[in-house]
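Exercise: predict the structure of this protein bound to zinc ion.
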Amino acid sequence: MFHGARHGWIEVVAGVMFSGKSEELIRRVRRALIAGRRVQLFKSHLDDRYGGQFRISSHDGREIDAEPVSSSVQVAGKVRPSTQVVAVDEAQFLDDGICVVVDALADAGVRVIVAGTDMDFRGEPFGPMGLLLARAERIDKLTAICVVCGDPATRNQRLIDGKPAPAEGPTIQVGGSESYEARCRRCHDVPQRDRAQRELLPTDGTEEWKGI
Ligand code: ADP
Ligand code: ZN
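Solution:
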């Protein structure tokens, strides 16, 4: 299905929302275009910033559009045999099959650049991101700025009507009224998660987990 140069690999740009993952993905794609590589860019169409679409142009006038996708099968079906670089933005919204697809592409010599939010609003691995991070040759984890205290932010805070959203909600809210903030570990607030986590803590019956 795919063929390309001899050396392919997977690089993942991970991090919280607002950490600059899309900016970094665009920078890498623009440089690949400058290098004359044949690039294809995909973006989960669950994310509708930039009107659901965006276009990357390099200063030498070359430009490519992001192709909207909603599944790993669609990515596999759209990659052209001559493509040398495949970039996927918002990969957290795709299914686990994306791991098989990007592995196959890298095996076939394609450079694969994947960007995605690595944690959901509870602080758990988001969609296929944990599996992608395990497979990657290169990982860059970016941070944003915590809107509460100004420290580096690593967590996505979901708010409903301005209040921290409980852990029970769905991971992906479609058409909800919620909003998100970048926050650090200390300022991240997920009501009801702490109780559930305490039940999962390993114990030999004697150990005290103080302060948790
Ligand atoms: P991502 O793809 O990781 O969500 P983007 O590349 O779309 O991030 O956006 C990053 C930009 O978001 C930053 O350059 C900055 O201008 C803006 N921004 C908004 N809120 C924050 C924040 N809390 N911390 C850092 N950058 C922020
Ligand atoms: Zn903070």
